[in-house]
Amino acid sequence: MEGLSKRQQAILDLVVRDYIKTAIPVSSKTIVEGYGLRVSTATVRNEMAYLEERGYLTRPHTSAGRVPTDKGYRYFVENLMEEVELPLDKRLSIHRRFRQIRREIEQWIRTATMVLAQAAHSAALVTTPRAHKCRFKHLELVSIQGPTVLLILVLREGRVMQRVLTLTKTASQHDLSRTANRLNDLLDGMNAERIASSFPRLIPSDSRIAEIIFEMMRSVDERASEIYYNGLINLLKQPEFSVGEKARKLLNLFEAKELFGRVLAEELGPAVGGIQFIIGGEGRWEELSEFSLVLSRYGVKDYATGALGVLGPLRMQYERIVPAVRCVANLMSELVEEMCGLQRRRQPYLTIF
Length: 353
Prior knowledge:
The structure is a single chain. The protein has helices spanning 6-22, 28-35, 41-53, 70-80, 88-99, 105-120, 173-187, 192-197, 204-222, 232-236, 244-255, 257-267, 318-339, and strands at residues 57-58, 67-68, 123-127, 136-145, 148-155, 160-166, 227-230, 275-279, 291-300, 304-313. By secondary structure, the chain is α+β, with helices and mostly antiparallel strands. It folds into three domains: 6-69, Winged helix-like DNA-binding domain superfamily/Winged helix DNA-binding domain (Arc Repressor Mutant, subunit A, Orthogonal Bundle), CATH 1.10.10.10; 88-130 and 225-339, 2-Layer Sandwich (Beta-Lactamase), CATH 3.30.450; 136-222, 2-Layer Sandwich (Enolase-like, domain 1), CATH 3.30.390. The strands form three sheets. The protein has a five-stranded antiparallel sheet with strand order 7-3-10-9-8, with helices on both faces.
């Protein structure tokens, strides 16, 4: 993007902030009188005309006021938006919410979507963490009745899976525990392909259990990440989506989960912890032309990662949403580190003082 003068940057900054706050097109008079600028309305009007010519502002209908374009919002988030940290009381509140739930990935994901939706006053989405190839962590075999056994499989990225099996003959709980212990020692950290390669080295009873584990893990590898949502009602309260065709478009968007899966796969980079903006669909996603996404990847690179973020109108409160996304992404990364059995490297939101 071409450079803007200090005055042009200041005017664009004020237009974006005013429109985010009011959803009303911003006039030169509003800028001068509302913010006490020591320049004439004619000067501001000329600068706004220049910003419109360069594609940063647009004039809806025949209104005298202007609103930011996708390009204007992009310039704002990359050059004008202040880097702020989530207030201490909000960080502590979020931390308490996570500490009150069980250490299970699904509970953390549901809490993350709720916390983000409330903090942003918008809609939130969080995907389940997954590895490029899931890896074995732990197995339990529990006798139910006769030859019927419950198999409990725990994967490195935190997923817990269960399957009821019927063995060829009844086995005692002692024998089942010995089988599980042998497989835990042998398969620790393996992906599905490596487990398959271990079949020839196993005794027949262990091999049958390992084959079932292989099938379960392969199904995880082939399955796309699940996406959890929260906060649709917050968007429906926004003037952009409160009535009519735009409200219907918003509802259709939330029903098309595969769209978000494609967007996250194609647009969100692999780096954990960085913030990424998708504004107005970036010319690629027509369904998102009236929305912005603030996204972050969480987890542990090369082990398991997921994505989380906030969906809102183009005029979303970017400065309030970014630190909330960053805070929750850090907490979720710490959970994945724990699930993967890794030592925590940082705790910026858990260690407050």
